[in-house]
Amino acid sequence: MKAGSYPIEELSQFAMDVIRRAGDEVQSYFGKGTPQIKFDETLVTEAEIHLRDFFKDQLYRRFPEHQIYKNRQETGGYTHEKERYVWIFDPLDGVANFQAGIPVWGMSMALLDNFWPIFGAFYMPATGDLFHARAGGTALWGERKIQVSSQEEINDESLLLTFSRFHNHYRAAFPGKIRDFGCTGAHLCYVAMGRAEAALIANESFPDLAAVRVIVEAAGGKIFKMDGSEFFLNEHMDGNKIEESLLVVPPETFAQVRGCLKEKTT
Questions:
Q1: What's the pTM value of the predicted model, to 2 decimals?
Q2: Is the domain of 42 the same as that of 118?
Q3: pLDDT above 50: residue 2
Q4: Final residue before a domain boundary, out of 88, 114, 145
Q5: Nearest-5° Cα angle at 104, 56 to 237
Q6: CB neighbours (10 Å) of residue 191?
Q7: Do residues 105 and 126 make contact, with C-beta atoms less than 8 angstroms apart?
Q8: How far apart are CA 178 and CA 159, in angstroms?
Q9: Is residue 154 part of a domain?
Q10: Is residue 9 domain-shared with residue 140, that is, in the same domain?
Q11: Residue 130: CB partners within 8 Å, gap ≥ 6?
């Protein structure tokens, strides 16, 4: 299978090799946040700059004509040229966990071809978990195929993953467990592998979701708006925060999960 002039196998293997090496690069920063500071901006900024520079160097050595996503990315017309490829690298997801030495954090990498997604990967260096998928293909956890939960009914054993301050915005009648692990990418990958039935997310952006949406969709899940309509991530390529809440769930159980969540009006 080809993605333009490059085999998809070559592009996806490059992504997985680089994201693993990026994980090695950032380990020296992991857990080194100042304990007295809730958000150690200095540590996080230094780690992110180091990772972005590392990725940029690796990409331009291998594919010098490719582009790196930037906010307010211009979406030009269709082209056969090599600059049709745009890489989205999100260096740190779960920064509070990262600086505190809690292993639930990760980094993501996605590839667009003429602004259509063709590959996504999410890597958790502290645990070694690598989730990846080709658009329209199979979602994988390492080498193992994964898919969303086949559970037809939500029950007291079900798991809903949520965002910080969730209870400030919703009243929940969810019969199972509600948890926040502090890392959106991990939440979506846990839904993709069937360990959680659903994830409610908020205040995300295009680069936050570019890779994990490929994984979720390849595993049989979907990102919905709260009214049940389809969510189109490419409408948010400007990089601004997506203000509305989104529900990530197998399509068959959307109505059940959504029915358990009531927005607070005051």
A1: 0.93
A2: yes
A3: no
A4: 145
A5: 45
A6: 27
A7: yes
A8: 6
A9: no
A10: yes
A11: 16, 19, 20, 121, 122, 123, 124, 141, 142
Q: At 33, is the pLDDT very low, low, confident or very high (cuts 50, 70, 90)? A: confident
At 137, the pLDDT band (50, 70, 90 cuts) reads: very high
Burial of 136: CB neighbours in 10 Å, binned 0-12, 13-18, 19+:
exposed
Tally of domains within the chain: 2
Inter-residue contact 234 to 210 (CB < 8 Å): no
147 CB burial (10 A radius; 0-12, 13-18, 19+) = middle
Residues 133 and 163 in one domain: no
Q: How many CB atoms sit inside 10 A of residue 202's CB?
A: 18
Exposure b/e, 5-18, CB count within 10 A at least 16 = b: ebebeebbebbeeb
Q: Could you give the CA distance from residue 33 to residue 31 in angstroms, rounded to a whole number?
A: 6
Cβ(177)–Cβ(154) below 8 Å: no
